[in-house]
Design goal:
about 100 residues; single chain; four-stranded antiparallel beta sheet; globular; mainly beta
């Protein structure tokens, strides 16, 4: 998978037992498919980056834009501020370790 910017976070909220929900979500392009365990790169507004993995995916109803909502179990709202860019990064294994600055739970 070629890395691409999936979306910019406009809202986040915690779903008990499921993790952090990132909104608005992404719209797959062509035959693109996302799965739990796929790596993501989060580029925060302050310039720091965090590699993480998708914990689960949700398709909301109604869903006129065909968005797939991403959930992250190991991060909190403080870890993913509004304005964070969410990038696909291919199939290499990712972790929830910040590359520079920031914190993880």
């Amino acid at each position: 998978m070629t890395p691409r910017r999936l979306f910019t976070v406009s809202d986040t909220f915690m779903m008990r037992g499921r993790g952090l929900v990132l909104a608005p979500g992404t719209v797959p392009v062509g035959d693109e498919r996302f799965r739990a365990g796929d790596p993501l790169l989060l580029k925060r507004p302050d310039g720091t980056e965090v590699q993480t993995t998708i914990s689960s995916l949700e398709i909301m109803n109604p869903n006129p834009n065909h968005e797939v909502v991403v959930l992250l179990k190991e991060l909190t709202k403080d870890d993913v501020p509004i304005g964070t860019e969410v990038w696909s990064v291919g199939s290499e294994k990712a972790s929830a370790t910040p590359k520079s600055g920031g914190s993880t739970p």
